[in-house]
Amino acid sequence: MTVSDRVYNARIVSSVAATIISLACGTNYVYSAWAPQFADKLLLSATESNLIGLAGNLGMYSMGVPVGMFVDSKGPRPAVIVGSILLGLGYYPLHKAYDAGHGSVPWMCFVSYLTGLGGCMAFAAAVKTSALNWPHHRGTATAFPLAAFGLSAFFFALIGSIFFPGSPSKFLMLLAYGTFGLTFVGFFFLRVLPPHSPYHAVPDAEPGLTDSRQLRRTTSGESKARAGRGNPSEPGMSPNTTIDTNNTKMTQEASEQEQEDEATSIRDPPSDPNGTTRAVDAAEEAASGNRDGADETSSLLSQSTLSSSLPGEVLVQSSVDMDRSHRVDIRGINLMKNIEFWQLFTIMGILSGIGLMTINNIGNDVTALWKHYDDSIDDKTLVLRQQLHVSILSIGSFSGRLLSGVGSDFLVKVLHASRVWCLVIASGIFSIAQICALNVTNPHLLGFVSGFSGLGYGFLFGVFPSIVAESFGIHGLSQNWGFMTLSPVISSNIFNLFYGTVFDAHSVIDKDGVSSCTEGLNCYWAAYVVTLCACGLGLVVTLWVIWHQWKTRLAESAGKGRARE
Fold first, then answer.
1. Which of 34, 49, 159 is nearest to 91 (CA)?
2. Residues 295, 231: contact at Cβ < 8 Å?
3. Which of 109, 101, 84, 248 has its CA nearest to residue 176?
4. Which of 119, 157, 235, 359 stands the most exposed, by the fewest C-beta atoms within 10 Å?
5. Any idea which of 144-148, 315-319, 464-468 has the lowest mean pLDDT?
């Protein structure tokens, strides 16, 4: 087996490991499959139960920026092993608390937070490894861990319903051992391959031979110089790199100067004293697939990505307006001063909060409707129904992520429209979900609520990173996206705690101290009235963003026209 084959096979194994790791990282979305029974066993109110679920969301979303910095500086593998430990340390105490029938709410919030943080760390490492291992096919490579993350809730709900039907204790044990085991085993196969290669291609001396390239070995001085000046403004950079974010024009001028230097190097390649080009083994470089020197501490999108050669990549790769995304670089303080950032931050907060309210409480919706519809239903059947709706949510989220990527590319490339129109579609889907939630009284039809909620949530998160890249530049995508994901932390707390307050107001506590609501739709109706109004607000803000972007792009085009004249 050649070196090329060995490296290729190792990359395949690493990608499979990244996908398996991601499968363990989205388990916060399976919370509704065990939360109602957990609350009944520990005599928790709906508000207390929501606090525990919110802590998991907080761990997932609040630490995006520091986790990204950790992965960039230390590499993906340490993040995976830390994430696996945190996942195990998070779910196992919840399993023991359920078996004991009591536990401190602050302590359970803390361990729930660990589950979110562990999933965040391992998932960030898995996605980065996939991107670095396949620099020319990043869209396809990262699609697998992204899809696995979206299907995580479905995977564990399915396993639980098959092997541990109606047993929240064993299901929590499955989450504890399963998430730890998948990430821990994946750690041993997750590698960034190969190391930096000292070879790079130069054009053939004869014109017209476009698919024939000669290779030469660079000197150590050239390599250091190239590494020192190459890619000066990367998303999620390593700590030893600095960027001047106060002047985007300087970034553009530096990029143009670098291109001129590269052109000079290509026109005048160093020649061998004997007049011949030194022959090198090209197989090793071809196997690496990365002439930009990706390693475990490279930024996620740091290297230039060539056009894809995979026919199916267009279906999963969310392309961005490369001209604007590379020309604009807004981050840090400048980001905070940008009105478009706050517009998008508001939209993300409103729509993600709406989705997370249903994701965290679909189990309560199921319990309320079924107990009102059939008061003889047993707990085992209730658990199976809850796991069914968690699976529907998970599949809907996965579908929404794919559809939004294809749909946004269609909008930009074919209709020449703003990608933000996908957020208008997401607002519409969420509105349909809220209308269904306000009118469905038959529990057999509750699938419309969970299905549309998952679809809208997937639509939102599938397109939003591309919007952030196009609006503020791809060079600062990692940290800008980290700031953007802070908005669900705020909104999900508001919506979920309000849902818990409404549900508790209609609940009764029996002689054993168990809180339950048997009023059916009335148990949570008021909460969905508020989220339906929030959908309208999100739609208005989204249309405002589209109008604001249109005015801004129009002004930019006019400025370019005057500059040419």
1. 34
2. no
3. 84
4. 235
5. 315-319
- What are the b/e assignments for 538-547, b being 16+ CB within 10 Å? bbebbeebbe
β-strands 213-217, 508-509 pairing: unpaired
Give the DSSP letter of residue 395: H
Strand, coil or helix: 407: helix
- Helix (H, G, I), strand (E, B), or coil: what is residue 203? strand
Question: Would strands 508-509 and 515-516 be described as parallel, antiparallel, or unpaired?
Answer: antiparallel
pLDDT tens readout for residues 255-292: 444 444 444 443 444 444 444 433 334 434 444 444 44
Helix (H) or strand (E) holding 508: strand 508-509
The answer for residues whose C-beta is within 8 angstroms of residue 17's C-beta and 6 or more apart is 126, 186, 187, 188, 189, 190
**Gyration radius (Cα) of the chain, Å:** 26
272 burial via Cβ count (<10 Å: 0-12, 13-18, 19+):
exposed
Q: What is the pLDDT of residue 126?
A: 87
- Asked if 114 and 287 count as a contact pair (C-beta separation under 8 A), the reply is no
312's tokens:
């199916």
Q: Which two tokens stand for residue 48?
A: 């207390």
Do 265 and 201 contact (CB within 8 A), yes or no? no
Strand partners, 214: 202
The full length of the chain comes to 565
- Residue 8: which residues within 8 A CB-CB, separation 6 or more? 287
